[in-house]
Amino acid sequence: MTLKIPLGPVMVDVAGLELTEADVRRLSHPLVGGMILFARNFESPEQLKRLTTAIHAIREPALPIAVDHEGGRVQRFRQDFTAIPPMRALGERWNQSPEEATQLAVSVGHVIGAELIAHGVDFSFAPVLDMDWGESGVIGNRAFHREPEIISKLGRALMLGLASAGMASVGKHFPGHGFVKADSHLEIPVDERSFEQIRDADLIPFRDLADGVMTAVMPAHVIYPAVDSHPAGFSAKWLKEILRGQLGFDGIIFSDDLTMEGASVAGSVIQRAHAALNAGCDMVLLCNDQAKADDLLRDLTADGIVATEALSKKLCRMHAGATSGPAVPGGYEAARNAIAALGLD
Q1: Which residues contact 154 (CB under 8 A, 6 or more apart)?
Q2: Selection from 109, 189, 105, 195 nearest residue 153 by Cα
Q3: 14: how many CB neighbours lie within 10 A of its CB?
Q4: What's the confidence (pLDDT) of residue 345?
Q5: Phi/psi of residue 135, each to 5°?
Q6: CB 33 within 8 A of CB 283
Q7: How far is 176 from 205, CA to CA, in rounded Å?
Q8: Is 122 a domain residue?
Q9: Is 90 exceeded by the pLDDT of residue 241?
Q10: Is there a catalytic annotation at residue 256?
Q11: 1 pLDDT band (50/70/90 cuts)?
Q12: β-pairing verdict for 65-67 and 10-12
């Protein structure tokens, strides 16, 4: 029986290739509003489709299903999916031909969107809008380019490609993770630059794409002490004052994973969730720890956090088909052939 309840502010994951009773119970919780897949959830395209169909059948509105499927080393599904190049490849092509690189970015977005949607996945946490400062190992070739204006143009093209397939986009990691060496999965990165230095560089792509083409944003677990003592994802100054107020972004804000080391400065998992929600995140992610996810859902419920129709309606923007964009000339096959012509497999 399908549960007819609003989408809540927590995104969780599942352990394996098919749903267990514990998974169904967790995904049925009123505070859950989405779920994220990993490589461990993929065995074959047919299995993936069965899994996503089962997840979508649990709730109405259906839980939006997400994945990190950017290309390069961050592509969760491989078998029978197009090998997507790292975004740096598009930046390198820009250096040769901006027009060709822009069309390739559209093609990449369209193929990502079309293939994921065909297998029941609603959206990818993509694209990365961080600058390639040559410092960050965790960002590295995931970034389009060193120049923020070029990142804006390639990011917009990729987002339009996603939209042409019916897929929303998520720009990350606001306001920029590329300058610091530390990996926020393992450490607590600190970016000592002034706000003016960040504003005039890393912030430019987020500013340029806050005009409606970018559906959602994911902030970085990075501290920028010249602006706030809290990491951006737990900072009302960054999210409410700067992202919402100064940049005018009215889309969805997803926290990065609350289990990452970069989030540890906010305290326990429940404290991290409250800090993110209070700072302005619409949805918090808790990945790779089902026990902690159960604890979080229990404690947030006890603290009076509830799902609302307003939030649910907002999160439905992430459903496949809720976004549209100009058609890609030649459609999916032409886009896929354009990627193959890069010869980067």
Answers
A1: 87, 90, 91, 94, 101, 102, 105, 144, 145
A2: 105
A3: 23
A4: 53
A5: -110, -35
A6: yes
A7: 9
A8: no
A9: yes
A10: yes
A11: confident
A12: unpaired
Q: Are strands 10-12 and 283-285 parallel, antiparallel or unpaired?
A: parallel
Q: Exposure string (b/e) for 127-139, b if CB count within 10 Å is 16 or more?
A: bbbbbbbeebebb
Average pLDDT of 292-318?
Answer: 96
Q: Is residue 252 part of a domain?
A: no
The token pair at 345 is: 């497999």
H or E element that contains 173: strand 170-174
| Alpha carbon 45 to its chain's center | 22
Cα(264)–Cα(271) distance, integer angstroms: 10
pLDDT at 278 over 80: yes
Q: How many domains does the chain have?
A: 1
Mean pLDDT score of the chain: 95
Contact 286, 259 (CB under 8 A): yes
In a domain, 16, yes or no: yes
pLDDT tens by residue, 100-157: 999 999 999 999 999 999 999 999 999 999 999 987 778 999 999 999 999 999 999 9
User: What is the number of other CB atoms lying within 10 angstroms of the CB of residue 55?
Assistant: 23
Which one from 13, 132, 202, 256 is the annotated catalytic residue?
A: 256
CA dihedral 11, 280, 292, 122 (to 10 degrees): 10
Looking at residue 266, what is its pLDDT?
66
Residue 224 domain-assigned (yes or no): no
Query: What is the domain extent for residue 50?
Result: 1-63+289-314
* Six-digit token string for 46: 């047919």
Does the annotation mark 173 as catalytic? Answer: no
pLDDT of residue 188: 82
Q: Which two tokens stand for residue 193?
A: 């630059």
- Residue of 68, 185, 289, 295 marked active site: 185
Most confident residue range from 72-76, 176-180, 236-240, 257-261: 236-240
Give the model's pLDDT for residue 316: 98
